[in-house]
Amino acid sequence: MYLGNFLGSKGRWVLSALLICAFIFELAYCQKDTQEKRNTPGRKPKPIKPKLGKSTKKESRAVTAKPKIKATAAAQTVLTQVLNRGKFKKVGETISVQTGDTMELRCRGKPVQWGVPRYLEDDDDGRLRIVQHQRYGVLTLVNTTGADTGEYTCFPMYCEDTDCRKEYNKAVKVFVFFPDPQELFVPSSDYYKAIHLRTNWPTLLPCQVTSPEAKVTLHREFPPMEVAVDGTEISFNVKRGFTIHRPRPHHAGPLFCVASLGNLRQSSTTYMLIYVNYPMAPPAPVIQASSNSLVVGENLRVSCSVVGEQDVVVEFTWEYPGQEIGRPLYTQESVTPTGGGAARQQSQSVLLVDEVRDVDQGAYTCTAMNLQGAKAVSTSVKVVKAKPRKP
Ligand SMILES: *[C@@H]1O[C@H](CO)[C@@H](O)[C@H](O)[C@H]1NC(C)=O
Questions:
Q1: Which numeric CATH code is attached to 286-384?
Q2: Cα of 114 from ligand 1 centre, angstroms
Q3: Confidence at 77, pLDDT banded by 50, 70, 90
């Protein structure tokens, strides 16, 4: 087999797996399995199962009920790499292309749209070319460098007359490494980057390498030390960088990545991690007036309170009837810890109106805001004339 020879022995194994796949299931499901096996050649191949993640319920039923018919329909998106002398290779999750070489990807669909790394989208220096043929689209990138490393996506388009939209569920992605012998990290325009660490929100340190073979470690600047990467609290993905899954205040500070390959060792941009107490949800304020019906001359007190996580700042703003005529009201704000085991606090704003007048009648609205959002609550207050004193 010509193609088999070309791919080599590992490739031949992959190819036969692909062929079996193509007969039984949609290729899109199998490709991932095949790629996984190629990455771990020592592992015993597990039985090929269809991956149903990207399909709709209807499709998955079709796969199990009539697999052979579905396979011949071949409606799935197929992304191939065009190698020199017109040979094609179906791409897996990742491919490596030598820097300086031309990368050519071909994707079946009429038409297709392409997604490229952000930097290529922004600086069009004429190296990227996209051509749509009758049945497929071609993306060509010439004079490649390590900076081109990233995700390339083909989106088949669904068109009705001239109105086209991307079919996101049929998109095919490939992560392309351009191993650069001089640059182990994908160059970044910043030497220094501030990243907010939010409580319980995964944070990414995007130190991306140009070669999948590079060994990457995480380091703290002060005091200088390597940060343990256990795969749970902090994990590494060669396509994305390091992720801190549940940030805590102790993760804050300057961090950087170090990549080594052969006798080359390089440091990434420094990431300044700033810890922010980030609430889980927008505040849920409760408003209460000292009385909803007052006699002219009485004092009014409207309180707005929020119970939330400790050290999360809540800002209050008020709207009230006397606002338009510039009635000078004043507010008192306070934060008090609430009882109980959980670290919670009550934030409160109290609006005070001395000696109410007719103009103070109406709706009092308090808006409470934290980093997650804002919520407004209202209460209405009636002002009545003083009753004539009875003799
Ligand atoms: C690619 O590099 C060659 C050789 O340096 C140069 O002549 C050519 O203009 C470059 N092509 C593009 C599109 O930048």
A1: 2.60.40.10
A2: 23
A3: low
Ligand 1 — pocket residues by CB below 6 A? 126-127, 142-143
Among protein residues, the one whose CA lies closest to atom 13 of ligand 1: 127
Q: Which of 27-31, 147-151, 194-198 has the lowest mean pLDDT?
A: 27-31
Hey, whose CA ends up nearest to atom 1 of ligand 1? Answer: 143
Q: Whose CA is nearest to atom 12 of ligand 1?
A: 127
> Which ligand 1 atom minimizes the distance to the CA of 126?
13
| Shortest-distance Cα residue to atom 7 of ligand 1 | 143
CA–centroid distance, residue 99 to ligand 1 (Å): 13
Which pLDDT score, from 0 to 100, does residue 120 have?
A: 87
Residue 68 has pLDDT above 90, yes or no: no
The CATH code belonging to domain 79-177 is 2.60.40.10
Of 277, 275, 305, nearest to 377 by C-alpha is: 305
Coil/strand/helix, residue 207: coil
Mean pLDDT, all residues of the chain: 80
- Give nearest CA residue, ligand 1 atom 14: 127
Cα angle, residue 102 at apex, residues 99 and 107 outer, rounded to 5°: 125
CA 63 from chain center: how many Å? 31
Q: How far is the CA of 143 from the centre of ligand 1 (A)?
A: 6
Q: For the chain, which residues make up each domain, given as ranges?
A: 79-177, 192-276, 286-384
- The per-residue b/e assignment along 64-102, b for 16 or more CB within 10 angstroms, e otherwise, is eeeeeebbeeeebbbbbbbeeeeeebbbbebbebebeee
